[in-house]
Automatic annotation (TrEMBL):
Pfam families associated with the record: BPD_transp_1
Protein name stated in the entry: ABC transporter permease
Species per Swiss-Prot/TrEMBL record: Bradyrhizobium canariense
Residues passing through the membrane, by range: 64-88, 100-121, 133-156, 187-208, 228-253
PROSITE patterns: ABC_TM1
UniProt membrane topology term: Multi-pass membrane protein
Subcellular location, principal: membrane
Keywords for this protein: Cell inner membrane, Cell membrane, Membrane, Transmembrane, Transmembrane helix, Transport
Length: 267
């Protein structure tokens, strides 16, 4: 390998190492046998993983986060898919404005959204309720679904839908039997990102969880503030692994979709 190629590759490798180093440190600390966070650990043990799985508070927070994320996936995938299908059919000026409004939660600071949601939900008794967190997380997750589904819709020939309608299919049947099967990869990828967005979100959870709906990120935040021990490293490692697996699945879905498109193009 020539020096012209070696230098950029070395720079990229150093950047990736810099980004991955904190994750590696957390991973190593999760297997520490010490009673406090120290690096390098004096010995390796599964002590803190056992502490996590044996603590009802940690498990309750985990199950609540999984339930909330699952509900957010159902709501945001439905709303985001319908929104993307509707937006793509709008006139260009209105489509641009509507897309900007739908994607605004991605650019507005999370603390601003959290404050606004808190004041809005407090009037209806949703603070401290799992349903309040579900609704707030859905607002954050819908833009990811809209973006993913819109990308899939961009690769669909509108003539397929027009052909189904001309043959007597109703709009609902066309949506269910033609459009949705074609955009299924985009819907699945959007659903995965919606799950990750909800499962890892902490800012809104700090405002809305109260004492009756403590999610896993909120529980991790409290542990960092009041009783810092290697259990937090074990929980963080499990969360990182789950997120990495979901991102890998999303990548495989996208890659498989591109392969199928290339195969159809060659055919």
């Amino acid at each position: 390998m020539s020096a012209v190629r070696l230098v950029p590759a070395l720079i990229v490798a150093l950047i990736l190492l810099f980004l991955a180093l904190p994750i590696v440190v957390v991973f190593v600390l999760s297997f520490s046998s010490a009673a406090y966070l120290t690096f390098p650990p004096p010995a390796f043990s599964f002590r803190w993983y056992k502490a996590y799985f044996g603590d009802s508070d940690w498990l309750d927070a985990t199950w609540l986060s999984l339930w909330v994320a699952t509900a957010v996936v159902a709501l945001s995938t439905t709303l985001g898919t319908l929104a993307a299908i509707g937006i793509v059919r709008l006139p260009r000026p209105i489509r641009i404005l509507t897309t900007a409004l739908v994607l605004s939660p991605l650019v507005v600071p999370g603390i601003v959204i959290a404050i606004g949601v808190y004041y809005a939900f407090s009037r209806y008794g949703l603070v401290g309720s799992p349903m309040g967190i579900v609704l707030a997380h859905t607002c954050l997750a819908v833009p990811f679904v809209v973006t993913s589904v819109s990308a899939s819709l961009a690769g669909i020939d509108p003539k397929l839908e027009h052909a189904a309608l001309s043959l007597g299919a109703t709009p609902g049947a066309t949506l269910w039997q033609v459009t949705l099967p074609l955009i299924r990869p985009g819907v699945l990828v959007g659903a995965l990102f919606a799950f990750i967005t909800s499962f890892d979100e902490v800012i809104i959870a700090l405002f809305l969880s109260g004492s009756g709906a403590v999610t896993l990120p909120r529980r991790m935040w409290d542990d960092l503030r009041f009783q810092l021990n290697p259990t937090i490293a074990a929980v963080s490692t499990l969360t990182i692994i789950l997120t990495a697996l979901l991102l890998a699945i999303a990548h495989l879905i996208r890659r498989r979709t591109e392969q199928l498109k290339n195969e159809k193009g060659e055919a």
